[in-house]
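Encoded backbone
================
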Amino acid sequence: MSLAARSLTYYLKSSLQYFGYAVGIGALIFVEFLFIHSGEADAFGTAFRMAVAILVMFIAMLNPMYAMYSPNWYDANVLAMGGRRKDIFWGSIIKEILFLLMGVILVSVIYVIYGTPEMIPASVYIMVGSLPFTGMARIIGHKIRKNGRVAVVIIALVAGFSAAAASIFSGLGKNISDLLPSGGASMVLFILVAVGIYSVLQIFVHRLCSKAMVQ
């Protein structure tokens, strides 16, 4: 196996592993809320809405979190295995995009099966909206290698508070989609802007990756 293929495989496995963590957390939260609301008439529905809302938030937050941590750990591992800097750059992009796409597909399928497809746009807005933050987080990760783990802890705390807010919002019977613009054209424009910002940030990420070293 070539160096490029080996590096790509490493990032693909990492993306699948992260996604498995997010799904696992969502499943545990669903079971927890199911027990908490076991005495209610719509216990399953309440637990479901909260778990999926938190899953969406975790997918949106884990991507930037791992992007910030990656230069300190995963990229260094690839370099240590003999990988090239351009393998790190493209592998990271593939990992981040794949993680996001898997999240969008899974959440969309869940909502369709559950009969609430109207919640899909809100989830897409939240998850795709994390792309620019992912690009920025990767830049920050290169800049603050010494404090990378502290930054990850901070983002994890922010993710926890965000997930709690989402669960409270869902528990009140309100839809996040009520706060977002409606219409297919608005969503397409939003996606294009998010991807565009992410792409521009990759210019700076590429420059930093070209100087990456094993530490």
Notes: The CA atoms of residues 35 and 43 lie 8 Å apart. Helices lie at 3-36, 43-69, 74-80, 85-114, 120-128, 131-143, 148-171, 184-209. Residues 3-209 form one domain. The mean pLDDT is 78.
